[in-house]
Amino acid sequence: HHLSKQLLPKVNRFNIIGEYIKGVDDKIQRDGFYSQLGYYFIKDKLQAVVRYDHYNPNISKVGDISKVYTVGTTFLISNKIRLQGEYNIKNEEEKQINNNSGTIQLQIIF
């Protein structure tokens, strides 16, 4: 079973999104959350985003928490086309892995 709560306030050109998750699978308890702040430089067209993710895949195990810091942007080309780019800085609690990543995606709704 899983529990999830989300927060979605919008104030002018700012928006804040946050979510907390908690679950149990095969007696393993896990939890995590993320917080995201976005700002529209061009209203409903060009948005910059910063996000922080925190995830613990096994609450009873020490050393496997992961944290991700993200910086990104979204350009809404039309109601059905969006271009997004982001860079993720990933930090593992016990053993640091060289796994930072950048992503660019084009989304088309049809």
Structure in words:
- 0% of the residues lie in helices and 70% in strands.
- With 110 residues, it is mostly beta strands.
- Strands 1, 2, 3, 4, 5, 6, 7 and 8 form an eight-stranded antiparallel β-sheet that branches.
- Strand 3 (14-25) and strand 4 (28-42) form a beta hairpin.
- It is elongated, with a radius of gyration of 16 Å.
Order of helices and strands: EEEEEEEE
Q: Percent helix among the residues?
A: under 10%
Radius of gyration: 16 Å
Count all strands and give the number.
8
Derived structural class: mainly beta
- Output mean pLDDT: 90
Query: Beta-strand percentage?
Result: over 45%
N- and C-termini, Cα separation: 34 Å
Oligomer: single chain
Number of helices: 0
**Unreliable segments (pLDDT under 50, ≥5 consecutive)?**
none
Largest sheet features: 8 strands, antiparallel
What gross morphology would you assign? elongated
Task: Using brief descriptors, characterize the structure shown.
mainly beta; eight-stranded antiparallel β-sheet; elongated
